[in-house]
Amino acid sequence: MMGDRLAKYSDAGLLIFRLGFGLGFLFFHGWGKLVGGPERWAGLGQAMELFGIGFGHTFFGFMAAFAESIGGVLLAVGLFYRPVCALLAFTMFVATVSHFVSGQGTPAHAFKNLFVLVGLLPLGPGRYSLDALWFGKRAAPGA
Question: Where are the domains of the chain?
Answer without folding.
Answer: 10-135
